[in-house]
Amino acid sequence: MVGRYTHTHQFNRARRELKFLRTRLGRVIRDIRRKITGNERLEQRFVDLLALAMRVGFRDHRQRRSTTPAQNVSEDRESPDHPADRASWVNKADLNQSSVK
Q1: What is the Cα–Cα distance from 22 to 41, expressed in whole angstroms?
Q2: Per-residue pLDDT of the chain (101 residues; tens, 9 = 90+)
Q3: Which whole-number Å values give the CA distances from 70 to 3, 9, 85, in the listed order?
Q4: Distance of alpha carbon 12 from its chain centroid, rounded?
Q5: pTM, whole model, 2 decimals?
Q6: Chain centroid to CA 74: how far?
Q7: Which end of the chain offers a freer environment for a tag, N or C, measured as fewer CB atoms within 10 Å?
Q8: 67 Cβ partners below 8 Å, 6+ apart?
Q9: CA pair distance 16, 21, nearest whole angstrom
Q10: Which of 91, 100, 97, 49 is nearest to 70 (CA)?
Q11: What CA–CA distance (Å, rounded) separates 27 from 20?
């Protein structure tokens, strides 16, 4: 709904909705952390999901996304083996080799 509100320039309503969603996400994160404390198996299972939820929940929502696709790609996927990054990685390698010649 937040995207729909911002599209129609209802920014105060969108901000209120976003605050509500962040509050809910924070409550869920705290509840999951409280329940898995002390259980190593569950902590290992939820570590990646909680990290993702923290990154989504506490990012600065006022910043616009970058216009270049390379900057919008997640920082976690910097390996050349990932399909989304392969084209940019190969192009960078070709550029580096051509400049060496």
Answers
A1: 27
A2: 788 888 888 999 998 998 999 999 999 999 999 999 999 999 999 999 999 999 888 877 666 665 555 555 555 555 555 555 445 444 455 555 554 54
A3: 23, 28, 8
A4: 24
A5: 0.55
A6: 7
A7: C
A8: none
A9: 9
A10: 91
A11: 11
